[in-house]
Amino acid sequence: MTEFDFSTLIGLVEHYSPSGSEEAAASWLVKHMSSLGFEASLDEVGNALGVMGTGNKQVILLGHIDTVPGEIPVQVENEILFGRGSVDAKGPLACFVDAVAQVGVLDGWQFVVIGAVDEERDSLGARFVVDQYKPDFAIIGEPNNWDRIALGYKGSAWANITLIGDQTHTASGEQTAAEAVIEMWSAIKSFAEEFNSDKKRAFDKILPTLRGLDSGEDGFEQWARIKLGVRLPVEISPEEWYLKLEKILMTSNTFQNKMEKVGFAMLAWQSEKNSKLVRAFLNGIRHEGGTPRFVYKTGTADFNVVAPVWKCPAIVYGPGDSALDHTPNEHLALEEYKKAVSVLVGMFNNLTNS
Amino acid sequence: MASVSCNECAADIILADGTEVNEIIVCPECGVDLEVISLNPAKLEMAPMEEEDWGE
Lengths: 354, 56
Fold this sequence. Notes:
The complex is a heterodimer. By secondary structure, chain A is an alpha/beta fold. Chain A folds into 2 domains: 7-153 and 269-353, Aminopeptidase (3-Layer(aba) Sandwich), CATH 3.40.630; 155-266, 2-Layer Sandwich (Alpha-Beta Plaits). Chain A has helices at residues 7-14, 23-35, 90-103, 124-129, 177-196, 238-249, 276-287, 302-310, 334-353; strands spanning 39-42, 48-52, 57-64, 75-77, 80-82, 109-116, 137-141, 148-153, 155-166, 207-217, 221-232, 256-266, 269-270, 293-297, 314-317, 331-333. In chain A, helix 1 (7-14) runs antiparallel to helix 2 (23-35), helix 1 (7-14) runs antiparallel to helix 3 and helix 7 packs across helix 9. The model of chain A has no long low-confidence stretch (mean pLDDT 96). Chain B contains no helices and 6 strands. The A-B interface holds A 88, 142-144, 148-149, 201-203, 273-274, 278-280, 282-283, 286, 291-301, 322-323, 325-326, 354 and B 20-24, 35, 37, 48-56. Strand 14 of chain A pairs parallel with strand 6 (49-53) of chain B.
């Protein structure tokens, strides 16, 4: 029996690549994919691309090559790989490369592996590729265990709300900007609680968080600001959420208010579980002796960027325990990695033959 | 058309023409999700469990 080659996984993890510093890892991956038979290159924003085949039916395998900062010494101990990105998400990306290399060129099909940059910040890489392709199937790489398929990721939207008004005397009994902004936060929470009252899954709920609170005065004016985050269900788009916030803001006429949208909002997305792609994955997992599971995530991923635009069957897959994401203890069992590669190879065989 | 029993409530389920292996179907009696594991012979398993977690 041939010994499994972990050089894609270990080589990728050895090239430390926090967001903004992916160049060396991406260049290494391009060279490595070329050696495995891919047509490989870097695109304009620094994503590593590996293309296998020229067929009309296209499968995109979108992983990310960046990690959060914090280098962890790369070592294999008791068949477990330690290192930054081993789980999030070089493990999933490497197993895309190894599985496509094993499958090779298939008549009528084209596989495109993308190691996207900047997922841990603003998803620059995914935002660039989203307009470059219109695939028939999309697989996004994130750790969800080898026997689980993620079908949905919640949306998110961030905003700062500031209230400004004339300074009042503390003995006047008039509401302060700080008091008004706390009332506003209570109104936001009440709206979410009412919306959530008949929802069982966290995936279907509005989950607002108060991420910061600040206030001040200069003798003439007083102000108060809250920093808000929210995890959104499929039912509420970021635009609808911002409109709701504006409505809540309009309930205060004592203070001038300003809502500032922060960062990139993400639309929640849920994929159909009866697609040909999901069936091929279920087949692949069962073939490896697993009992497949579905998962819905309360976080976000590049899935949120591409799936709503591509509107093709899309899922998120990859080995590893996502509870280790961004932790100093990031590690991946090599056995699980091998299983995930086998699942993908089985899945490709099923998808391309059915 | 093959006939098979629901794993949850034992109701008879007729698999429609064109049913595929690994397709998720719903028991018309108890509403549980089931996965078609094979067609010849027709066999069902409980559909994958649906979980939630917070990972990015």
